[in-house]
Amino acid sequence: MRISTERLGSEIRAGAVSLTTRSVVRALAMSGDPVMQVLGRRALDDPYPQYERIRARGAMVRHPLGMHITTDHAISRAALRDPKLGVKPAPERPGGIPWQVVSGEEARYVHPLDESMLVLNPPEHTGLRRLASPLFTPRAMQDMTRDVERVVDRVLDRVEGRTRFDLVADFARRIPIEVICDLFALPDADRTAFVRWGQVLANTLDGIRTLGERREVRRALAEMTRFLSALVDERRRDPGEDMVSRLVAGEVDGEPLDGRTLVALVGILLLAGFETTVNAISGAAVALLRHPGQKQLLLDDPALAGEAVEEFLRYDAPVQMLGRIALEPVTLGGVSLPAGAMLVVVVAAANRDPAVFEQPHRFDLHRANKRDHLAFSAGIHYCLGAGLARLETELALRHLFARMPRLALAGEPRMRPIRNVRGAGAVPVLSRGER
To answer: I need a labelling partner for 333 at 20 to 30 A (CA). Which of 54, 212, 261, 318 fits?
Structure first.
């Protein structure tokens, strides 16, 4: 569950467009500029060749549009840990809907990706993280293992008798939402709505481009704000042992959280990890299906499921880029950044840095240093739910291939049109496709 995912897409574009017109951005992308190819409107099915073109320009590249971008592993790790670099603050308006003036009813909407600890720097970030951290400790994950296994088996029971199914819709998408809804003690009837809200809001990571998208986002935010506000109020009146009740009962600096802050916090815990964990489960499974030798290693030794998770996170990180803003002048890789400068950390490219990873474009479960990846970020914004993401993905892979050892692709995966949160929207598979 990617709880520390920064809402990067619209901020990158806003920073670029503030220095030039969108037509120039489009022209640069059409001219083959690799940075604009990566940051442009159209998500690339395979961005890694463009990442290598950026890497060839140097460890720290200053783009003519004003931002810096790095694909270097050492610089990326240092940047993510440097207190002089922070996340870009949320827009100074309630609602978090890009490129519009918010007023009236919309001012009451809470956008978890714009108003939670994801977009806060210390000290505001510190208190909220300290409140939520006990929910995701290693001991908590150990206690959760059997519950997650039950969810995985329950989902597999629904598809095991089918010859053909969609790995995303019928398997990967169901696991994280059922796990988190169980943890939050939400009834089954509400889970379909959370899937829809998660998909709608994930699409805004690259910005809102049409009036239709804007209407869809407004509707999702209105529904989710009403639901979460009612949920928080209910758990105040009648607390239980679930995560929402524990957050409602918590305090930051000796004070309880106000309603809006609680709604944003509960919303980000529910939603931020949903899309990225779906992509981790389906993406890791596809990587194994495309590398039959590696899949056979897992079939021969199911204990390698955890190794498969780590290698996939290095090989094709579900969150491709993270944005940072220089809070004060800072030097990285010998390059001085003034206060206010934007840095794009391409963690997916850093995870394939040939200076760190031998044969970086190879998917290899036995890679010795695969855990040096930055897929979960680093520093104070290190993924709060990394342990849960690992647990869900490992158990999903272990049980999927144990019960369907002949699983095979039935066609090419269809990638979602989201640039930064990378994953497939559909993956047709055959449960008994291999001979």
So the answer is: 318
